[in-house]
Amino acid sequence: MFAGPLPGFDPAAAPDDPSELFLEWFTDALRDRVPEPHAMTVASADERGAPSARVLIMKDFTPRGWWFATTTTSRKGRELAVNPAVALLFHWGPQGRQVRVRGTAELAGPDLCAADYLARPLESRVAGLHGRQSDPLTDPAEVDREADRGRQRLERDPGLVPADWGLYVVSPAEVEFWQADPDRRHTRLRYSRAGHEGAWERGLLWP
How does DSSP classify residue 93? Predict the structure, then answer.
């Protein structure tokens, strides 16, 4: 059961481009004060196809796609280097809505990566400086010691940008908009295209 009333969704009135519909739904989530509307699950896979997933923050959304940041040496960074196929999931529970994206992640150029890092709050830059994300940890106190060393480095050099900081954009090949229904007659509208520059086709899916 859903806690409250759900918004309507008429797929026949949806725009031809899924980016327009995503912006509409994201704006609705902001208006309705959905908690953390910019949080998204990012699923990647290694060279064998073994998947892993985690929740990240959408840094931006542009005509190119969805943007997020991480170190290129992290598990997800290493996976994206060998297998750029990626899936995203936005879940806006109070509205009974999901947006599912399948596409390809591309690492941005050095200037954009540096700009993203330098625009972050201090503790975010400290956390991104050690370059050891996903490595085994034997002594939890080492995290604090490494953070102290990182702050000192940034105090000495405020313009410091780690070489492994990466900003990624996900260019979509498929986007699905999922609207829940109290009677489980959910509405699912899928946009798909061949490649990242082709024309979008759309159609409904069985719930």
Answer: G
Condensed to tens digits (0 to 9), the pLDDT of residues 75-85 reads: 999 999 999 99
Count of domains for the chain: 1
Q: Which amino acid is at 190?
A: R
In the chain, how long is the greatest CA-to-CA distance? 60
Cβ(18)–Cβ(178) below 8 Å: no
In a domain, 156, yes or no: no
- In this structure, is residue 22 part of a structural domain? yes
Say if strands 60-62 and 97-107 run parallel, antiparallel, or are unpaired.
Answer: unpaired
Alpha-carbon dihedral sign for residues 129, 132, 137, 139: negative
DSSP sequence for 113-141: HHHHHHTS-HHHHHHTTS--TTS--S-TH
Specify if 123 maps to a domain: no
Structure tokens at 173: 């090949």
CA distance 16 to 10: 13
How confident is the model over 85-122, as pLDDT tens digits?
999 999 999 999 999 999 999 999 999 999 999 999 99
In angstroms, the CA 110 to CA 108 distance is 7
Task: Tell me which residue has tokens 């899928």.
Answer: 190
Neighbours of 184 (CB within 10 A): 7
pTM above 0.70, yes or no: yes
Per the domain annotation, does 42 fall within a domain? yes
